[in-house]
DNA sequence: AAGGAAGTCAACCGCCGTGTA
DNA sequence: CTACACGGCGGTTGACTTCCT
């Protein structure tokens, strides 16, 4: 055996410096070698694996390639609405703990989630001219985007239910999250867990111990028992119903108040520079034209 | 059609924690 | 205890693609 594991046939070990290591994109041949080797020998110490498989790559490079791309259970394709919701929720709790977040999205890698966050979510923050870690932005996620995602999941579930016509009762979307593919965090003292039909940012956050949103929490919890209580039982998502029931005191959502109070200019965001409106049907758009119009109306009403 | 801007994502880098000799 | 190798993780880069003018 070599120092840290397997040795490929008893030959003298060759240092990485002597191996003329390759870098950059992987070739089909390299992928094939790595897949074949792992299929035969399993995963192991990556440095020795790289040598034994005849790959002129570092162990790290092999590990990354396998975990992020070649592994058979890697799930490719667009991030679903359910996954987006889960990412937003988990990120609000754990921050940039991509690996930890990825553990709860089967088949998704930390790299993929990280890329999603940086390219999609941070884009929205940039467009709003606010920091992605700011309270305003986090509250927008909590009180606008996440409810919006829930609505859209609900609508999709309802559409599926009516098309199949086999089920009289509509399953709540979170109970049906990812068609069984979601693995929610274990139910701990402060965790949201299996009470999926009761999912809200309020009860799902870590507010009890360490509220990552800071000390001031918008008063929505007094107005809403849960998000589903604001959604008509006929599963017909309606932003007006949503806000007017949920935020009955002022008809202004907490996030809208934030933008109003912090001088953030919603009205200057026309359809040409607002990423939330462009291609509103795209999977990663949280707000549609109705939301935008509604927010504008609310701002005008209070001016 | 061409060129630049913006978006996407695979891969690399550097740091850190852990295990072992 | 110390040194070293290794794996894991988050941040960053850069090649490639798509969009826009």
TrEMBL record:
Residues 18-70, 71-121 form the Myb-like domain. The keyword Ion transport does not apply. Residues 161-175 have a biased composition (Low complexity). It comes from the Eukaryota. It holds the Pfam family Myb_DNA-binding. Its main location: nucleus. GO terms for molecular function: DNA-binding transcription factor activity; sequence-specific DNA binding. Residues 161-217 are annotated as: Disordered. Keywords: DNA-binding, Nucleus, Repeat, Transcription, Transcription regulation. GO terms for cellular component: nucleus. Transmembrane segments: none annotated. Residues 18-70, 71-125 form the HTH myb-type domain. InterPro entries: EOBI/EOBII-like_plant, Homeodomain-like_sf, Myb_dom, SANT/Myb. It is found in: Nucleus. Residues 191-217 have a biased composition (Polar residues). SUPFAM superfamilies: Homeodomain-like (SSF46689). This is Uncharacterized protein. It comes from Corchorus capsularis (Jute).
